[in-house]
């Protein structure tokens, strides 16, 4: 049985997939379409990754294209840079978010800079996949939200999927990008299921760096990405029972930011709440609040409010539910916007 036949037999054209399986199918499709696409990382081969996102890929594509690496994140990314310079499209898995910091030097000083350094002569089409955020009761270094380190780094594209359909398309779009992409995957959403049309033509996909209104509303704009999108949709459903209407925007791309979709929503509602798992202080919400205030000052009915984690190291699992933003904290922020 060929690889394509095996994929088709396992997954119908349109079906319900978990986010993890949608990523797997997206990776598989990219590898089928381009023999230069490689997958590499700790335990991505025989084990299929700790979250089984790469399950079955080494079996179908071989050890030369799905590579189990040593436990050395700096070496993994450095090797991917060398492979990209030789014409390959490496997809690197960082096993857990907190493990990316040993690779920061390679990402920030090499991966992000090569195109500028070579005056555009060279590009590094490397995707760095990072399972991010909490909600799984993990130990220290396994539940971080490091997105602002990379959105602050010029030369990197930074995206975050929040649902299976986006996971399937965005991973393929990221692999096709000529620039390096930091790809955040919300680990607590890996097992969420939703319909995914794997037969849809790429021309019909939402562009990689386009934000999307996932819940239209009139009273408050709620901005989120990755794991918090689902929480904000739950908040929208809760306030609807009180006669209020939230417009939930899934940013999807953090750099570049689709500010026009954000501005159009805030100008219509006049109120805005930004939600993310990372600490509020110097978090991505601070940039959003500043940009919105600059663009929408005369249309705002209240200050832009931010909901996020606390400025502490990520706590032990028993305290996780108190640290992470939840439905009540989002609803509290929504209520406070109406106090002005």
Radius of gyration: 20 Å
Distance between the termini: 64 Å
Structural class: alpha/beta
Strand arrangement across the biggest beta sheet = 3-2-4-5-7-6-12
Q: What number is the mean pLDDT?
A: 95
Strand content: 15-25%
Quick one: how many beta strands?
14
Helix content: 25-40%
Order of helices and strands: HEHEHEHEHHEHEHEEEEHEEHEHEHH
Biggest sheet: strands, sense, closure? 7 strands, mixed
Describe the structure.
The protein has a 7-stranded mixed sheet, with helices on both faces. A 5-stranded mixed sheet has the order 9-11-10-13-14, sandwiched between helices. A two-stranded antiparallel sheet has the order 1-8. Helices cover 36% and strands 20% of the residues. Helix 11 (284-296) links the parallel strand 13 (272-279) and strand 14. With 340 residues, the protein is α/β, with parallel strands linked by helices. The chain has helices spanning 3-10, 19-33, 57-61, 73-85, 104-111, 114-117, 147-151, 164-176, 228-240, 259-269, 284-296, 320-323, 327-337; strands spanning 14-18, 37-41, 66-68, 89-93, 127-132, 157-160, 181-186, 193-197, 212-215, 220-224, 246-250, 253-255, 272-279, 305-309. It is globular. InterPro entries: THDP-binding (IPR029061), Transketo_C/PFOR_II (IPR009014), Transketolase-like_Pyr-bd (IPR005475), Transketolase_C (IPR033248). Pfam families: Transket_pyr, Transketolase_C. Keywords: Oxidoreductase, Thiamine pyrophosphate. Residues 17-192 form the Transketolase-like pyrimidine-binding domain. It comes from Actinomadura miaoliensis.
């Amino acid at each position: 049985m060929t690889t394509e036949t095996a994929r088709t037999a396992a997954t119908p054209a349109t079906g319900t997939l978990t986010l993890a399986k949608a990523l797997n199918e997206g990776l598989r499709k990219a590898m089928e379409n381009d023999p230069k696409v490689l997958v590499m990382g700790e335990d991505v081969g025989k084990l299929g990754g700790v979250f089984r996102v790469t399950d079955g890929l080494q079996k179908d594509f071989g050890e030369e294209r799905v590579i189990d690496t040593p436990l050395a994140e700096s070496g993994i990314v450095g090797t991917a840079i060398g492979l990209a310079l030789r014409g390959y499209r490496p997809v690197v898995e960082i096993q857990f978010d907190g493990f990316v910091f040993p690779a920061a030097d390679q990402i920030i000083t090499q991966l992000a800079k090569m195109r500028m350094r070579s005056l555009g002569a060279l590009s590094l089409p490397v995707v760095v996949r990072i399972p991010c955020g909490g909600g799984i009761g993990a130990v220290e270094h396994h539940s971080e939200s490091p997105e602002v380190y990379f959105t602050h780094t010029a030369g990197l594209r930074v995206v975050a999927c929040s649902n299976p359909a986006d996971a399937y398309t965005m991973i393929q779009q990221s692999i096709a990008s000529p620039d390096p992409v930091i790809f955040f995957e919300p680990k607590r959403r890996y097992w969420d299921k939703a319909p995914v049309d794997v037969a849809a033509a790429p021309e019909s996909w939402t562009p990689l760096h386009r934000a999307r209104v996932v819940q239209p509303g009139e009273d408050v704009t709620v901005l989120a990405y990755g794991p918090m999108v689902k929480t904000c949709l739950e908040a929208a459903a809760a306030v609807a029972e009180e006669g209020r209407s939230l417009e939930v925007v899934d940013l999807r791309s953090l750099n570049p930011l689709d500010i026009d979709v954000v501005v159009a929503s805030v100008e219509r509602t006049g109120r805005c709440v930004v939600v993310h798992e990372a600490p509020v202080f110097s978090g991505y919400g601070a940039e959003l609040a500043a940009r919105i205030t600059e663009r929408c000052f005369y249309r705002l009915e209240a200050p832009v409010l931010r909901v996020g984690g606390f400025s502490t190291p990520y706590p032990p699992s028993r305290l996780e539910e108190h640290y992470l933003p939840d439905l009540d904290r989002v609803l509290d922020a929504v209520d406070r916007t109406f106090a002005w």
